Amino acid sequence: MSDEREPGARSPRLSAVFGNPEFRALWSAEAVSVLGDQLARVAFSVLVFQRTDSAALSALVYALTFLPALLGGALLGWVADRYPRRRVMIVSDLGRMLLALPMVWPGLPLPVLCGLIVATVLLGSPHTAAQGALLPEVLRGTLLERGYAVRQITGQTAQVAGFATGGAVLVVLSPSATLAINAATFGLSALLVRLGVGARPAPARGGPAGTGTPRRWTGDVAEGARTVFGDPQLRTLALVVWLAGCFIAPEGLAVAYAAELGAGPLAVGLLMAAIPAGSVVGALVFTRWVRPEVRERTTLPLAIAAGLPLTVSPLVPSVGVAIVLWSVTGACVAAALVQAQASFVRRTPPGARGRATGLAAAGLIGAQGLALLAGGLIAQRWSPAAGVATVGITAVLLLAGLLVTPPARALGRSA
């Protein structure tokens, strides 16, 4: 597999990716969209609670901003392989803008609001698949890892900034006005992609083997699954991404965990920020100062190392120690994910990258959801520390099992 890298070559600076105008456009569009999404999530929560005085309904609507992506990633990634990927991103953004505009109406019935949220999140799945499939064509060689690292850092920062800004914005603006800002971010994202990303033809047309026969979408979905699960190394990389994604579970238990340690709201915020902050440092250090061949060999060991700090949660004496341990987890997770994602898209055939990327993204969301659910149930039955530790131990054992498989050993040798 050629990836245009030179073993032992000095890694370019992280900022080198911004010398590529297409990446600048993709990055800017994604940053704007993530910030708008976070503003919208805060606004949805406040709006629904104000109208219903129900914490359960508020939580349900918040969950709707995530869960449909699980279905959309698995079933709609094929769109990014059937049509030009820049066009898919633009149409997705414009469609989401049109869906977001009615949400601005303060009197919109709650069931209609929920339906629009689901449709908006589903329509984002082809955009995510197209962007992931396009990135290896925009960034070549070692710049691809830099691009994933920048996206990791930007995504974590934008999420924190979006939540913080969302609270501040709602002090001076109504939830409806905040949702109008969210709708505008979709339009701005479409404009940035239209002006900054070059047009490319669709990677795949017609049916199998160039017969010209239109391919049914179910066949595209099945082929995406075969692409990922039929290649032992792709399957291994996907499992690494999914299992490493489970280590965000502590964020969902931060409130209860801080209470268990006798700490207050400030500790909750610091605990929730620990993993994202560690992710920023891990992505930066790993991609800037570690050689490419070393990065590939250490992807799976780093994923295993990410879970080890969580396994000792019941023994942690203070919030300060927990913050340090969770930060180490975040750093190792980011390092593993950046390289695993880059290796995944490199190995995937160009014409199937949309479907494969969509399926991988859906699996990541599903794994994170299951980890959060399992951690919460264990915390409810025993303790928050037990919930964090159980998720960590389970994922570590599964990752260690992958470490001894032939595909994992082959990935290490191909570095």
From TrEMBL:
InterPro entries named in the record: MFS (IPR011701), MFS_trans_sf (IPR036259)
A Pfam family assignment: MFS_1
GO cellular component, one term: plasma membrane
Record key words, sorted: Cell membrane, Membrane, Transmembrane, Transmembrane helix
The keyword Acyltransferase is annotated on this UniProt entry: no
Record localization: Cell membrane
Transmembrane stretches, start-end: 55-79, 99-123, 179-197, 236-259, 265-286, 298-317, 323-345, 357-379, 385-404
The keyword Transmembrane appears for this protein: yes
Gene3D superfamilies cross-referenced by the UniProt entry: MFS general substrate transporter like domains
Protein's recorded name: Transmembrane secretion effector
Annotated organism of origin: Pseudonocardia sediminis
Lineage per the UniProt record: Bacteria, Bacillati, Actinomycetota, Actinomycetes, Pseudonocardiales
